[in-house]
Amino acid sequence: MSYILKKSLGQHFLKDENVCKQIISELFSHSFNNLLEVGPGGGALTKYLVRNKDINFKAVELDKEKITWLSNHIPGLEEKIISGSILDIAPPFEDQFAIVGNFPYNISSQILFKILDWKPQVQLMVGMFQKEVAERVVARHGSKTYGILSVLVQAFFETEYLFEVHENCFTPPPKVKSAVIRLIPKQEPAKFASEKAFFQLVKTAFNQRRKMLRNSARGLFDPETLQDKIFEKRPEQLSVNDFADLSFRMAAFNQAGS
Description:
Blueprint: E1 13-14, H1 17-27, E2 34-38, H2 46-49, E3 56-61, H3 64-73, E4 81-83, E5 97-102, H4 108-117, E6 122-130, H5 131-138, H6 148-154, E7 157-165, E8 170-171, E9 178-185, H7 195-206, H8 213-216, H9 240-257
């Protein structure tokens, strides 16, 4: 390799070809026309993706040095690279698209929130995350790892934990475990009063996750509603649909008070 890895950008480049092929296989087990790769880095996945003539491919990369290197080493890629951060760009396609990537671990949660922003257009995501983040995304209620990311992502997507990746599959090896997950839009997303109310309720509840909901979400509901037994539970005990249902009662209280 003739480029410099940058710790400030959370760069740990995938070098294991078997893992690359496994990610590609999981990705193409679904059909799509448009594909965005996030953080192509050294091109471990890119070299396979750019060859596929059946898809409209783009990649977004923040590191200008890597853009130059990729453009020089992977034929046909130069015009397909967006210079910038996924966190700052507009949706790269007008129609629906899939997303793939070995995501920078230092912004992995922010990337998931970006995917939520783009959810009307995202038809598939196959991505590598720090194992701890991957486990949070797929965690079910009742689990200690279940939290804000779990609820917000699962309200809109089916989540699947695909496989783990050993540290030695990267250059340099990260100090954390890695895992690949898949997101597919739900046929019927959770029904809530409004997205704003739902997000506010979930974030408020988990900001004090050890407290009963009656205490952590006290200001969002009227005193009578707070007597319901569901408010005796801690937030990790509530399902996605429980939060969605409560958003209607929260909205009714806010309307009454306005």
